[in-house]
Amino acid sequence: MPKMKTHKGTKRRMKLTGTGKVMRRKAGSGHLLSVKSAKRKRGYRKDATVSPGIARKAKIIMGAR
Question: The pTM is what?
Answer without folding.
Answer: 0.81
